[in-house]
Amino acid sequence: MKNMAKDGTARGGQRIGAGRKSKALTDKIADGRLNGAMILPEPTEIEGADVPAVKDYLKATQKNGKDLCAEDIYIETYKWLKDRSCEMLVNNQLIEQYAMSVSRWIQCEECISEYGFLAKHPTTSAAIASPYVAMSREYMKQVNQCWYQIYQIVKENCSVEFGGRSPQDDLMERLLSARKGK
């Protein structure tokens, strides 16, 4: 039992986030230092679907009659991962969570555009901040957290350069196209 106090709680030791940050696999390959880097073998002619079947809740029609754009985001993100040969390393639930969070963020932003930044208090009728603003902020935090997890997996395991456009880069474009009804 290392660093155990008399009351049974673990104290001391290495702090979270302390230490040297891990390098991307492409950097390790470029430097010629592959010790500790695991390169996955190339698969032997496996054929399969481009994208696994999308769950029904990602395609559901919303209460306001609009379609949920989570299916498109899921497919786009999965194809981005497949292009980098990392689709098997990222859990499908994480991709689904990312897609759902992005689509909910877009819904909140559409509501802010439609109803404005102010709302009426239910009992006093005084002006209050719209609840959609806070919800939008929370969904954007979820989007970023999920994307950082996905991107970290790609960064650590992709043996080719993984730069270029990513699904995360297209969020504002997706928001604007959703407002136009595309």
Could you please describe the fold and organization of this structure?
With 182 residues, the chain is mainly alpha-helical. It has a domain at 56-180. It is 45% helix and 3% strand. The chain contains five helices and two strands. It has helices spanning 25-31, 70-83, 92-115, 131-157, 171-180; strands at residues 118-120, 127-129. The protein has a two-stranded antiparallel sheet. Strand 1 and strand 2 form a beta hairpin. The protein is extended. The chain starts with 24 loop residues before the first helix and ends with a helix. The mean pLDDT is 81.
Task: Please name the defining characteristics of this protein.
2 strands, 182 residues, extended, mainly alpha, two-stranded antiparallel ribbon
Short description:
The chain is mostly helical.
Mean pLDDT, to the nearest integer, reads 81
Number of helices: 5
Strand order of the largest sheet: 1-2
Helix content: 40-55%
Low-confidence stretches: none
Largest sheet: 2 strands, antiparallel
Tell me the β content: under 5%
The coarse overall form would be extended
End-to-end separation in angstroms reads 60 Å
Structural class: mainly alpha
**Using only CA atoms, what is the Rg?**
22 Å
Task: Give the number of DSSP strands.
Answer: 2
**What are the secondary-structure elements, in order, as H or E?**
HHHEEHH
